[in-house]
Amino acid sequence: MPKLETRRAKLGFLLAALALAVMPAEAQRGKKPAQGRQPVSHTYLPTRHPGYTDRVDRYPYDPGQARKFLKEAGYFPDLDGTLRNAAGNRLVLELNTTAGNRLREQVAQIIQADLRRVGIGLTIKNYPARVLLGDITNKRSFPGLVMYAWILSPTSDCDSLYTSDGIPRARNGWSGQNYPGYVNATMDARCKAASREIDEGKRNLLLNETAVIFSRDLPALPLYVRAQVAAAKAGLQNFVAVQLSGTYETWNVHRWVWE
Question: What CA–CA distance (Å, rounded) separates 96 from 128?
Fold first, then answer.
């Protein structure tokens, strides 16, 4: 099964698959469960994470540009519209995600339809969570793509997530969470430094850099951030709802004051 081995191919895939989050609600009616309300992910950190920066590369939904990037990556349409490379291999990928999760299954079907528009075939094979998040991800045995959610806190960093020593391997007992197998020496250095930095400002600057590197290299293809709702009584200062799954609204309560 072919893989998205070049950045151009990854860009083509990403630009074709972002319709879920960025298409206007009118165009999504009856098709898109997000209805345009889920913020698009541009990097591994959500926009409200303290380490996020607006300097990250952005990839708007653009099927035309997707086709251009895929052509530059060496893929051309066959008579049936499916893309093939110079060796004649069809660009058909397998996507694995958790069975029984209705929203995730819908997202997979939407991605499948969107990719079909640019000539990428996608087969969907779902597994129970214990299987998908067990050997399939931990032993990196997914044949093409795997989709899952990720939880971050305001103090989360990229150590183990996107550092080379965090790649699960037999020699490290399949530990680590770098499931894409991403290797970048600069990313390693910045992620390690951020995880050890106690000064909040310096730490966030390091994370800013990792967010930019991730958005350029695309070791994983971020889709969207789950929208969350929070409310506070008028007069409460420094209340910040960071919209991070698993993070309580009281994460920075030590900074709250009444007006």
Answer: 10
Question: CA 145 to CA 137: how far, in whole Å?
Answer: 10
Task: Extract the tokens encoding 22.
Answer: 């960025």
3-state SS, residue 77: strand
Please give the residue that has the higher pLDDT: either 19 or 51. Answer: 51
The per-residue pLDDT for 62 is 80
What SS3 class is residue 146? strand
pLDDT digits (tens, 9 = 90+) for 176-233: 899 999 999 999 999 999 999 999 999 999 999 999 999 998 888 888 887 777 888 8
Q: Evaluate whether the domain defined by 7-155+218-227 bears CATH number 3.10.105.10.
A: yes
Return the amino acid letter for 215. Answer: S
Q: Where are the domains of the chain?
A: 7-155+218-227, 230-259
Residue 124 host element (H or E):
strand 121-127
Query: Nearest Cα to 245, choosing from 159, 148, 140, 177?
Result: 148
**CA–CA gap between residue 11 and residue 110 (Å, rounded):** 18
CA 222 – CA 17 distance, rounded (Å): 10
In contact, 36 and 22? CB cutoff 8 Å: yes
